[in-house]
Fold:
Amino acid sequence: MSEITALRAPTIASYIMVAALVLIWGNTFLMVKFALAEASALQVACARILVGAMAVIPFAILSGRAMPRGAWRWIGAGSIGIFTLALPMTLLSWAQQTVPSGITGVYMAVIPLLVLPLAHVFSPGEVMTRTKTTGFAIGFIGVLMLLGWDTLTSIGSASAAGQLACLGAALSYAIGSIMTRRTPTTDPIALSALGFAFAAILMLPYGIREWPEPGSLSMTTWAILIGIGVVSSGIAMILRTTIITSVGSVFMSSVGYLVPITALIAGITFGGETLGWTDALACGLILSGLAIASRRKSP
Structure:
């Protein structure tokens, strides 16, 4: 992967795209919670990927995007399909059967913490400094607090398994971010479309098997499934890939600051969820760790 794109300085467009992702992803967890009232976890995951593929792939074709060429671009697209689509979306849908939507959103703040050491090793120009290490350590304490002693001592329980699934999804997203950054210069929409093609191939057998019986889902649930497929998966994937390929995976990690807060506000306001003091403290430690790790030296 020797043709890695040179990083550019963030522009106003970069910040607008990040803000859009915060709004989209911050409310997705609540929408998934509502969908799970009638749909199964696999139905939700399949909808997010298959509907997203039906939105992104035709758009890429109709807009005249060239198919990515070269082995490394296809490897990059395959990693997107696995690590940023099929695997994390399945884990999160399954986890939200037992984990509140707001807490699921908080786990997404772990992504940039995990990106830091991975970027240090695999992404040129994104070195793990002493400041980043300090922020990582503080954030990691917050992760352990969020998991809680009960989770760490009762791995077999449903709630513990759900929280570990959230952590696994965060790790998957972090790996996907690094792999996307390592992919040679590629049109982000074409790369996203090819990634969705890989993910759709993986999930199609489950989608056929899990296709809902007639009348089993209300029109509201269908609307949610289509909405999270088109917006939360399709549009968000294009934005995410565009940000990472242009300004880097560490800048993309700034989404981790506001997605958890947005998810918590949405869950408490519209989902009837509550936030314990330990969860609030854990969230504060994670966000503080991110703030320290992302701090830049003045010129």
